[in-house]
Amino acid sequence: MAEITVAAGGPPDALDADLGWALGVVFRAYVKSANALFHDLPGGPRGYQVLAAAAQETPGRQGALAQRLGIDKTVMTYLVDDLEAAGLVQRRPDPADRRHKRIVATDLGRATWRRTQDLLDHAEEHILAPLDPADRTTFRDLLRRLAARAQSLDPVADTCQIVTDLAPDDPAPRRPRHAPRP
């Protein structure tokens, strides 16, 4: 990822100071790294999130986990089916209410999560390399606080819906075609 350069002693230009641009660039770098790590994991990044929750024994039922991760309940069912078929998780009855299921990581699932988490940590450190270690910790803390606040104000029930919500009603503008020169 290229570093932003600001004129010596001068303020950043409008693009450098644009939060959306900065978030987009960092997010794109993160997604590229993460997708490369998750290519063989059922469900890709979403599968990883479910596996991470199961491996860390995050309390909650399958439906509650789907809501927390912003995954449609129907999609969550198929996602857990795929993770279960790969031997990474199991559905177990919730001891508090046997009508509901909890997602529990298998031994293979926990080992896969640890291995993937180590690779993801390395990718994250690469992305955050321009920051010193104290700033990395501060950045992660601030980002978690912002995410928690945004989620509490406008909960995401289905991350797929975000794309639909953000997509314009009109098709994407097309580049003008240049007439051939005489």
TrEMBL record:
One of its GO terms (molecular function) is DNA-binding transcription factor activity. Residues 16-148 form the HTH marR-type domain. One of its GO terms (biological process) is response to stress. It holds the Pfam family MarR_2. This is HTH marR-type domain-containing protein. It comes from Sphaerisporangium rufum.
